[in-house]
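Researcher: Structure prediction, please.
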Amino acid sequence: MKITSTKVNSIAVIINTIAILATTFSTNSSTEYVLLFLIIISIIINIVLIFKRLITSKIIKLINKQEIKAIPSPPENEYNNHFYDRFFNEISNSKRNIYIVGRGLACVDKKEKEIADRFYDNLNQSLKKGVTVVRIQATKDISEYWAEKMAQLISYYPNFKFYVLLDEGKHITSTCVFDPDNSKKNAVKISIPIFKSFGLNKNTIAGPSVFIYRNLKLSADIKEQIVKLADEKMSLFIDRSKFKTTDDNLETAKKIYKYLVSLKSKHDPNSNGIIRVLEEKTLSWKIINGTDAIYKVVEQEFNHRTNFNDILKIDILGYTLFSVVTQIEGWLDQDFLNNVEMNLFYIDPSFAEKSSSINSSWKKSIDTNIDIINGFKEENQKILNTKNVNINLYSYTKTPGVHGFCFNDTKYFFSFASWDEKGQIKYPRTDKFFLLNEEDGSSSGKILKDLFKNWKEYNYSKPV
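Model: Predicted structure follows.
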């Protein structure tokens, strides 16, 4: 049975009452000694209760008292290890909510990458427990290592809300609040970034910092200010559902990673110098020189593929298919061709021979390349069937205007036809290609993609 202060107090009152009554009616001296003993016990109990109330009151005040821990800047050529130890400890001990604003880590060396790993591990633990984390990335200049860590958390946890601040000047300190609605466990972290050199690397790291505990009013205020930064006019929300096309979280993480890394190069010229990024206007072009460079990127696409359940459709809008025949056997040997539909478009050899805009020698090249591809299909038919690989050939009888590759109607390697000095279509080996990523939602990117689709669909005919 639990003995509470109220019960002890009641016992003391009963003893007092018995002692007083007994003293009043007693005439026996031995009885008086017993009663005196009871009175003394009663007095002791009352004294203990008085001290207990006083001590309990002091302890409660002490527990609820604001506490401040200040951490100075680190020594030269060192990271602020004391700060990170305390910061990560607060992350792992949080129960319900974390709100963070910061630049993230540049990960310029092994040590800083280790710090990024610790941040990821502790945040991962809290997210697994169901803690809601709101992260405001205070800069769009995100390192690839940091972007990879954040992308993984975004893709795996719907309770990780990630925003990118559009105007970096709106926030210069690194700020965080832990469990702001908990009157006993709330904490605020404020850190001022400082600029330091680590050998040849220059970096902004955590400088002088302060942790403030058990200040409910301050915690609520900091939370409110961070929530304001998450407004759509202030920040870009990285919505995982817009990148999640399958149940493969790793594939989603890769898409988010590419998007985060690309943010540093995007500007809105109508924002009076303020960098703005809007998902529906994202532009992410690259220029690739020559067909040889294309195949290096194509090989990377194959290597990064993780979802083999869905068909990978590859459309190659070519002239003579000279470059495909040098690659296709290697793709099979490297096990790249699994669950693949490949559509190969080429100039009809009869048209190539007759057209004044095309070098007549291309006819022989086309005939040879088609024979090689058909021979490859026949020789490897069994293994291609086992791997669910279909290779379709389509000829067209028009002077080509565009050529390139397309993966699943999302990623494009795209170039325009050009003329040589004889007024004929120039061989494309040295052409410059646009690389249009699947994240590109710009109006100009859409025009180029639609143009490629237009030429591809126009050239569809009965497979050869």
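Model: Residues 266-283 have pLDDT under 50 and may be disordered.
Researcher: Thanks, that helps.
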